[in-house]
Design brief:
6-stranded parallel beta sheet; single chain; 7-stranded mixed beta sheet; alpha/beta; 17 strands; elongated
Amino acid sequence: MNDFQAIADRVEIEALRGEFTDAAMMRDRPRLALLFTPDGALRMPNIPVEQVGREEIRAGGERLQRQWDFFVQTTHPGTILLDGDTATGRAYIQELGRALDGRQGLNYAVYHDRYQRTAEGWKFAERVYEVRYLDTSPLAGTAPHVAQGPGNNPADATATPAPVASFAAPASAERLERVAAALRAGGFAAEILDDAAAARARIKDLVPEGAGVLTGASETLRLSGIDEDINAGGRYDAIRPRVLAIDRATGADEIRRLVAGPEFVVNSVAAVTETGSLVLASASGSQLPANAGGAAHAVWIVGAQKVVPDLSTALRRVEEHALPLENARAQAVYGTPSAVNHLLILNAESRPGRGTVLLLREAIGY
């Protein structure tokens, strides 16, 4: 290999490492995956993550980026050792970021690389990530969130949506009033309460003793104590304990009938818009029929952090905030990931008074 070819190879490999960082920063996971050979591997033992092949690298990266509020990566030049059509090297990385669940920090790491010359140029055959220093002290900064166009290029930006960080911040009193007014205009009953304790007490007024009640799988209900009151308190004909006692292999039809048309459904939502829409998401879809209209009466308890301006922001909240948190819960409880397989959007209530929304001034659930 002549000196000119060696120089050209080094420049191309350095550009490859730079494009990796650019694709990560621009959240362009399809482009990042194409920087690897078809059977290339991205390994992060400390996380732990092992992705082999372009499709795994793309899909894994998209799952990871949904968890981030913001992420910054800087690559510093390292070694490159050429050996014909292959090469090895190291790149030195500085990163800082904050996840939607509050995890945050600054770290310094090394990528141990193997490169392969291909017909499309140099590609990663393998990147192995090694953390050398980690500081999880709170980060003081924030990041503006600009909507990206189809090419994930800032030049394609067409709007500036609400910052992801705001998906966890309680709405102001004025915004809650706007939501309540919009909900009432759409046929919902809407009340603004101070906190989850007030909602817990209000449920006893809204749901008569002895009523058949289905509860949704909701962190809001669990954290507030409402789930325990309904399903373990003895005051109501609780449907969920009955469903859990039925063999799913032989009693699927019975389960379906029980959850589709209860007298009451008590649940939360993933988002509520200032225009008066409720958005619910589900992996199985089993709880949605009752919320949509199958239940004679519905009560939704909604934390103040779930208020968003419009439906497009509500769908972002589902994907970028609620799903990563629910996915972590599902993995811990069931050993399987979650997914947004079913969406229910309630823009109005055709039977005025059937549905009551209890808007809380505090944040609870996700």
